[in-house]
Every structure is written in C-alpha cells, then in structure tokens.
Amino acid sequence: MTPKTIIEKQLTALSASLAPIREEVFTWAEQTIFLKWGVLSRSRFYCLDCAHVWKPSYPTTCARFTSCPACAGRLKMMPYNQVHFKETEYFALFERCAGFQVVRMIISRKHMKKNFIPTYFHKEVMQHWISPAGEVRTLARSTNAFAGTLDAWKFYSPLEIKPKDFVRNARFYINPFKVYPQMKVLPILKRNGFKTSVYDIAPHLLFSSLLSDPIAETLLKAKQLHLLQYYLCASRQNIRRNWQAVKTVIRNHYKISDVPVWEDYLELLRYFKKDLSCALYVCPDNLSEAHDHLVKKKRDLLRKKKLRDLRLEIEKAQKRYASDKKRFFGLSFRDGQLSISVIEEVKDFMAEGDDLGHCVFTNEYYVRKDSLIFSAKVCDKSVETIEISLSRMEILQCRGMKNKPSRHHRQILQLLSQNLYQIKERMKKRKPKIISR
Q1: pLDDT tens digits for 318-332?
Q2: Phi and psi dihedrals of 262, rounded to 5?
C-alpha cells in the first residue's frame, strides 16, 4: 500500500531508517527458540543438531526423548523418518524510534538433514509501530494469497504500510514464540507496569492496551495475569461488565483458576441478585463446586417456576434458534466411534446440560448470535459440548462432565479443527433472491 497520510509517510521513512538486525540476535535465536531434534533410522539415532550418529543399546526405550552422547543435547524424537526436516518459529525484537514503540517480528527457519549440521534462515516480516496514545500501525511483507497458510510470506517483497483495518487480518495477531531479552521500551510502558515478560500475549496488543486501556494496566499491576490474558486474547469476554467483581478479586488477592467458568458463575450470581462486591460470593474456595451448585439451583428453580410453560418457551426459542442457525443444521463429523454434530433442538440443550452437568442451557447459549454449539458423542452418549465463534472461526470452549475435559478431548479438538472449513462453507451460502414479476 502506498503511504498517503502524514503518519503513514512518517512511519515508512522511520522504518527505512531502522538499523539492520545484528548477527548476535540471530545467533541467540538459533540457540534459544528451536528444539533439538533426533530421528531413528535403521536402528540408529541421528542427532539433527550436531550430526552425530550412534547405535543405542535399547532403541525402543527412547520413544519421545533421548540424549545425544556428543553434544549432550536433549533430543525430541521425530515421529517420522524422511530426508529433510524443517522447523519454523517467530521471535520479536523491541526497539524505540522517534517516540514510537517498535515491535519487530522475525521469522526463523531451521533446516535439518541427517549427517549434516542444520542451516538457518531469518527474515524480518512485520513491524508494529505503537504511538504513546496506544494506536498501532503495521508494516508487513506481502503474502501468497493462494497458499494454504496465512504466513506464506513473499520474502522478496518490501515492508509496506498496511491500512488501519489490517487489525482484522489474522496475520496481525501472530504471537512470537520468544522475545529477545535486550529490550528497549518507552518509559511510559515501564510506568504502566511492563517489566520484561509479555505473558504469552502478542506484544503489540499488550503495549497498545497498557497505553490506552486503564483496565489492562490495573490487571497487570495487580498481577492478575490470567484475567489479563483473558481480557486481551479472548474473543468473547465480559471483564469490563464484570469490573466490580474484578475489583473484589484484586482486593482479596484471589487467583481465578478458570476465567470462562468464573464469568459464567458471575452470570449465575446476577441471576440470584447476589452482591458482586462481596468476596464471599465472588471469591469461592472451590470455583467448580460453587459454579455447579448455582447451575443446579437455577435449573431446579426454572423447573419449579416454569414447568407448565417450559414447552411453550422452548418452542418459541426453537423458532428463533432455527432462524439463526438453520444453515448449519445437519453438519456432523465422525472419527470412528466419535461423532460431533450441531445441536439442532433447544430441548437438546437442556438434555446436554443435564447429562454433563454444565450451564449450556441454563445460561441460554442457544441465544448467542456469534456462537455455534456442537455435541460430541461416543456410542451415542454425550461426552463434551463445544462452542465455536462464527466471527473468528475458533473453538471457544470444549467441556465435558462438570466442565472438565473428557478422555476424548484431544481427539475432539483435532476432528473439529480439521473440519472448520465446512462451517465456513455453510456461512458463505446465501438465501436465493426472489425475483418479483
């Protein structure tokens, strides 16, 4: 994109004036951000880090990790054997320039082959420029639009200024694996609570929030890191709405074990008109038990109050639910005995909540416009309920009995991830236009 405004021209010129990344930074990355790998081939172990080859006494005992006798590295064993191996990671570099905080994003690749020393490739692919007011503008290289990955960079292309709506692009949210420890950050960021760690949050999002959002600053200074991560990274969160309860948590130095469950628990407290400034309610000793107790209490109360009208209410809710989600009905995936399908009836939400002891019905998940709810079953028995965000196309929650993951959790996540494209295809479908004559 050609820079047009004054700030775009200024950032383009400042980017060109940045010093090249020093060789010692790349050396640090090669030693720090990559794993050490090994491979078992023809009853011999090959160290892909120092090219040492040896024949172990008991090869079957080294299924996942082993130690190289030459370089003493702890090697993670490759699950397959082939000629070439490659590992890709991102790391970030923090700099200051003309009053801006700069986050430089570098992609690093490690190319490995048996009997050869690994080679490395490093390239700066993106820069985030954060003003003292917290506004972020990004320069990035072009990508191959027809590639199967979002970061298929065209390394020969220049760093170009991106429009403001680039924040809606998935590449904007790339989170580096590590940050170079020699950091240059704005004094105002240090004043607002930043020290050295980004707490697994994309650095530019953390910096922007610390400069523009007092809630993020308060959470960081109070060391409520789980809440901070949830506030900045979760696509659906209500920290601002629940701020009174959050302040109670901060005052009592309470650590929340599961923030999504805690927010659901707060909705239940509101339903029962409890005081969200009272630590007795907001900071339970056992969050899971307190949540399940209120879920059961609300479920029993609803049944006592609305036993006669429940059928009529479900029928009305079913019409609204079918109107919103009908295009997804019939969508299902299968892997052996595991089947995952869209919940099509509101009454099935109630059955799902009863079977697994969670709040998918009592908190009316079928009303949420941006959510699509699936039920995972093994041998026709519900094992987990999954919530997917339609706007971000990501899995928000995947919970089994009493909000705990089942033993099929990993298989469910893998099967869903492989079939998210089918949901996208259903979203692209439009109702046919009626041509009036």
Answers
A1: 888 888 888 899 999
A2: -65, -40
